[in-house]
Amino acid sequence: MNRLVVMKFGGTSVEDAPAILRTARIVAGRVARGLQPVVVVSALAKVTDLLISAATTAARGDRATALAITERLRIRHCDTATQLALGPALREDPLAAVRKDEGLAATHAWMEAEFDGLEEVLRGLAVVGELTPRISDMIVSYGERVSSRMITEAFVRCGLKAEYVDARKCIVTDAQHGKAIPQDGPTEQRLKQHVVPHLAEGRVPVMGGFIGATEQGVTTTLGRGGSDFTAAVVGGGIDAGAIEIWTDVDGIMTADPRVCPDALRVKTISFEEAAELAYFGAKVLHPATILPAVKKNIPVFVLNSKNPESGGTRITALATHCKSPFKSIAVKKRLTIMDIVASRMLLSHGYLRAIFEVFDKHKCPIDMVSTSEVSVSLSLDSNEKLPAIAADLSKLADVKYEGRKALVCMVGEDIRGQNGIAARVFQTIRHVNLRMISQGASEINMSFMVEEDDAEEAVRSLHAEFFSDPDPEVFDVEAKRQPVAGSR
Ligand code: ADP
Ligand code: ASP
Ligand code: MG
Predict the structure, then answer these.
(1) Which atom of ligand 2 is nearest to the CA of 229?
(2) Ligand 2: which of 146, 210, 228, 233 to mutate, most ligand atoms within 8 Å of CB?
(3) Final residue in a domain of this structure, among 219, 248, 277
(4) Cβ neighbours of residue 111 closer than 8 Å, sequence gap 6 or more
(5) Are both 349 and 230 inside the same structural domain?
(6) Residue 325, ligand 1, Cβ within 6 A
């Protein structure tokens, strides 16, 4: 039996000392069951957001505010380390707590050095005033750099044979800062060098998610939410038997429980369905997470660190047959619809290619496409490149675009094979103004665009319609209402 398991804990699972101690207990539980975990941790909750705001503030020349942000982060991390070192020991044996003081001083010393380094970068940035993607990655990497080392020390204090591994030595990426892509071969090689030997010695390697480095050693990040991606890359690289994504909800739910408080846990879902949900906005998984797992057919579990007893969601190669047409509804917000109208070039050969080349040139991904006789409508992530894209396209056609749109995506096995589903969907949300509709690109996804302000109401109406009589084989019908996770 393959006993290797990659356990990834997201920001809320390591937000403070009690959360980190919960995490330690979960890992210890796996070790006690004879499993060999590799732990991947995110930055403490909200730290990445704060680092990004420190970076943008410094780049505007506001050094004082940027440094005030890092000062608060410094205090938060040092306080958390203190609680982790002294908290349990103080309760059990005050003398031991005093003895452990030495270790705590060492922890504070490396932490202070890290935050001094961060401040130095921000001071320089405030002078230069230009935030390059490379500097941005260097700044945001501090979240995972500090959390992973602090959590390793906490694990050791809890009696785990944990070993800190610098993720930048293991995850080799290309140089696309902000959305770097891990390179399979070199990463596997580095994992063999820096992770596998610890496992062989019965130790628990702990590393930060989200961060990596180029072959030349320049720090990169894998995109927001990228710790899930790290977990899958590590799982693929070491041929793990399972990948566990520990978060703050009971698993993949039938909708975001923040939007739909009566969402149900989906007990099992296919790789393909989970990938569609992640891509179309279900934040619970990073869209790139599934691929490395699919390649090696490694099951992925989504579990709740605040409720470890819940069965979670198991993501596997094949979908379990489900009597309900849909498994889950995702929403992706902050989208823009672009309408490209060209009556004279109507259906002419090469026209669509010319349009897509513009998006390619600006490296702008497209979510949804719909065409009519004279126009093409596209949905895109709202971004600063849109005016330049529109300017390029205006050489080919009339262009207009409108932001504040949302994409609602309903995922389920074989939607296309079931008659009357689309009619039921659109009847349910007849009060909502639909902007674009797509069905057919995939058998398991039915998507449409609405105004951003209408999206949540649309999800709630659809959820009430399609999950009132859920299939108990697939959904956790016993569970009480999922409590909405606290604010972060
Ligand atoms: P982490 O910090 O653990 O990576 P995230 O905030 O990235 O956690 O993802 C978990 C959040 O994803 C949940 O709190 C929930 O609000 C949101 N979410 C969105 N869609 C879904 C869904 N279908 N099922 C579960 N959670 C979802
Ligand atoms: N800390 C990073 C973020 O907030 C990565 C992650 O948590 O997955 O985006
Ligand atoms: Mg996440």
Answers:
(1) 8
(2) 210
(3) 248
(4) 74, 77, 78, 81, 146, 150
(5) no
(6) no
- Tell whether 84 and 226 lie within a shared domain: yes
Asked, for residue 106, whether it belongs to a domain, the answer is: yes
| CA 262/CA 463 separation, integer angstroms | 9
Is residue 244 domain-shared with residue 334, that is, in the same domain?
no
pLDDT lower than 50: segments of the chain: 481-482, 486-488
- Assess contact for 195 and 204: CB atoms under 8 A: no
Q: Where are the alpha helices (DSSP H) in 100-238?
A: 101-128, 133-157, 167-170, 184-194, 196-200, 227-237
Judge if 342 and 440 occupy the same domain: yes
Domain count, the chain: 2
Answer whether residue 195 is part of any domain. Answer: yes
Residues 340 and 243 in one domain: no
- Whether 309 is covered by a domain: the verdict is no
Chain length of the chain: 488
Q: How far apart are CA 79 and CA 63, in angstroms?
A: 24
Q: How far is the CA of 26 from the centre of ligand 3 (A)?
A: 19
- The whole-angstrom separation of Cα 315 and Cα 211 is 25
Q: Is the CB of 225 under 6 A from ligand 1?
A: yes
Q: What is the dihedral of CA 225, 226, 228, 230, to 10 degrees?
A: -170
What pLDDT was estimated at residue 351? 81
Same domain, 63 and 193: yes
Containing domain of residue 97, as a range?
4-248
As to burial, measured by CB atoms within 10 angstroms (0-12 exposed, 13-18 middle, 19+ buried), residue 442 is: middle
CB 266 within 8 A of CB 313: yes
Kindly state if the Cβ of 158 falls inside 6 Å of ligand 1: no
The pTM assigned to this predicted structure is 0.92
Residue 301 lies in a domain: no
